Amino acid sequence: MGEGAPRADKLRAFFNHPGFVGPNAERVRAALAEVPEGRRGRAELAFTAHSIPAAMAAGCDYVSQLNETCRLVAGAAGHASWRLVFQSRSGPPTQPWLEPDILDHLRRLKEGGARDVVVSPVGFISDHMEVIYDLDTEARRTADELGLNLVRAATVGTHPVFVSMIRELIVERLDPAAPRRALGLFPPRADACAVDCCPPAARPTP
User: Fold this and answer.
1) Domain ranges of the chain
2) Does residue 42 sit in helix, strand or coil?
3) What tens digit of pLDDT does each residue of 23-73 get?
4) Which of 75, 39, 81 is nearest to 184 (CA)?
């Protein structure tokens, strides 16, 4: 676009940043509080993220990052029973994508005797169209048909701690000496992915 074009820098991955984990845990606790008290401890917790092709997932740490987020959020929320599931898959049916799908998971939960499920869309940061349609419309309709009480946790959205985290990550980029925070098993991510990060999936041989 020329020498005068603006430069765009992407903030580092924040899947294990306390400013992301904490607000998500708060949203989960608020959702759990909507489950009848006598059943709250037995409620299932399903974390959702956007599904991607299995071949793409095999070449990156998408799933491992999500699992770490879920582990940290569930621990902070004080709820041990959780599962990472997926939503919003697309593409041809013949192409394997990450599973289980949230709707299939709800059916299995009901078959297993579950009465309540809290769904937390940790793979998303706002209540946009995919969250509202996939969870508030399709998943809720499925849960209602099954007789399963579904409570959807809010995304972090404009939570003040999350917004402060965004500012903190900007400061990191401006000042390399700024402290970098992270929780759990993974260190803070670098500002940019390595050159060989996320190689394209190998094409199947004919």
Assistant:
1) 18-174
2) coil
3) 999 999 999 999 999 999 999 999 999 999 999 999 899 999 999 999 999
4) 75
- Global pTM reads 0.91
N- to C-terminal Cα separation, the chain: 40
CA dist 183 and 103 (Å) reads 31
Q: Which long-range contacts (CB under 8 A, 24 or more apart) does 30-34 make?
A: 30/153, 30/154, 31/118, 31/120, 31/151, 31/152, 31/153, 31/154, 32/77, 32/79, 32/118, 32/151, 34/151
Q: Which CATH architecture has domain 18-174?
A: 3-Layer(aba) Sandwich (3.40)
User: What single DSSP character describes residue 135?
Assistant: I
Measured distance CA(50)–CA(161) in Å, rounded? 24
